[in-house]
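Students often ask why inverse folding is considered easier than folding. One informal answer: many sequences map to the same fold, so there is more than one right answer. In these notes we will look at a single instance of the problem. The structure comes first.
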């Protein structure tokens, strides 16, 4: 396994955060494809993603995700 530099880890984290933001932005389309998520509203999904992702390296954050 390749060891990533701090800069590479931060860039990878930023890319993941952007994809999570896209997921929330297009939540209506997402739940059409995933039946198990149909009862989950976008705010609850965004909050859960924020909990999971807030410990990523770097200082980047996608503003489509809550900070708290």
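Output (designed amino acids):
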């Amino acid at each position: 396994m390749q060891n990533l530099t701090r800069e590479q880890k931060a860039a990878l984290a930023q890319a993941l955060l952007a994809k999570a933001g896209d997921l929330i932005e297009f939540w209506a389309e997402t739940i059409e494809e995933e039946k198990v998520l149909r009862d989950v509203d976008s705010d609850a999904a965004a909050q859960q993603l924020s909990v999971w992702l807030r410990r990523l390296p770097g200082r980047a954050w996608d503003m489509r995700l809550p900070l708290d």
